[in-house]
Amino acid sequence: MNRYLLPASVLGTAVGGAVLLKDYVAGGTCPSKATIAGKTVIVTGANTGIGKQTALELARRGGNVILACRDMEKCEAAARDIRGETLNHRVSARHLDLASLKSIREFAAKVIEEEERVDVLVNNAAVMRCPHWTTEDGFEMQFGVNYLGHFLLTHLLLDKLRASAPARIINLSSLAHVAGHVDLEDLNWQRRKYNTKAAYCQSKLALLLFTKELSRRLPGTGVTVNALHPGVARTELGRHTGMHRSTFSSFTLGPIFWLLVKSPQLAAQPSIYLAVAEELEGVSGKYFDGFKEKAPAPEAEDEELARRLWAESARLVGLDLSHGSPVRGQSLSR
Question: How far apart are CA 65 and CA 92, in angstroms?
Fold first, then answer.
C-alpha cells in the first residue's frame, strides 16, 4: 500500500501546481473590493461570455446594470440569471444592435430619457474573424461592430456620462491590435482583398486610437476612458476561427490552451477592475493588459492618425463635430 503513496503524492502536487500556475498565468481575480451601489452601468454584448460575467460581478457589487444586446431572448435570459444569482433586481435587458446606426441611436435615446445617470460604459461587444459581412449601413462587420458602433454609442452618451461624473468608459481592445493597421483610405475593405484576421486587428487598433484621442478631449469633464486586453478566453467570440473544431488544436495543443486560455469569469476581471477600482480614479487614456498598464503598439500612439480616424468616423456615422462634440458645455473638438 505504501508504494502507492509517493506516486499519489507526486500526482497531487503536480495537479495542484498546475492549477496554481494556470491561476497565475490567467491573472487572478479583481484586486479591488470596491462596491458601486447607486451607480448605473451599461455593458454591451452582455448576454454571454466576458460581458455576462462583467455584468454579473458589477450587479453583485450593487450596480444598476443594463445589459445591451442584439439577441433579446438571450439578453433577457442572462438578466434573469444575474438577478437570480445576485438577488439584485436592478438588472435590465435592452436591445442594442451595434451593426445598426438606427438601433444605436434608439438605444441611446432611451437611456438618456429613462436613466437618471450613467456612471460606467463598458464597450465589450465584438465579433471576431467573421466572413466578409457588412452591417446594416454597409460597413465591414468587424470595423462596424467592434469600433464604429461603440464610437457612436459613446458620443451619444457623453452628456449623460459627464452629468454623472466621475464616470468611466472602458473599451475592450485586444493584444491583436499590435498586428493591426488602420487604412484610412480603405477602412471598410472595399479596395483590398478581404483578410478577416487583419480586419479584426484593425478594429481593435481603432478602439485604442479612439481611447487615446477621446482622453485628450475630456480633461476637466470628470469622465475617464481606458482600454484593455482581457486575455484569450473560452467564449463564443472565437466561433468563426475554427480552432475549436480542429482535432489538432484540441488534442495536440490542448494542454497549452488549458494553461493560457481564461474562463469568461477570469477574462472579465480586468473590465471589473477598470470599472470599480478606486485607485484608478482620474486615470485616463491608458491601455491595460490584465490589471497592469502597458504601452500599446506604436501606431496606437499616433496622434495625427487618431485625429484623422476620429474625423472620418464621425463622418461615417453621421455626427456633426465641426462645431465641437454633441456634448453640451465643454467642446471636444481639438
Answer: 6
Distance CA 304, CA 297 (A): 15
Taking alpha carbons only, the member of 41, 1, 65, 254 closest to residue 167 is 41
CA–CA gap between residue 129 and residue 253 (Å, rounded): 21
Query: What single-letter amino acid sits at 249?
Result: S
Nearest CA-CA partner of 267 in 10, 21, 25, 8: 25
The C-alpha cell that represents 206 in the structure block? 481603432
* pLDDT tens, position by position, 179-207: 999 999 999 999 999 999 999 999 999 99
Q: How far is 208 from 123, CA to CA, in rounded Å?
A: 12
Model pLDDT for residues 87-105, shown as the tens digit of each residue: 999 999 999 999 999 999 9
Distance CA 195, CA 108 (A): 32
Catalytically active residues are: 200
Measured distance CA(29)–CA(271) in Å, rounded = 11
Q: Model-level pTM?
A: 0.85
- The answer to whether 96 and 69 are in contact (CB under 8 A) is yes
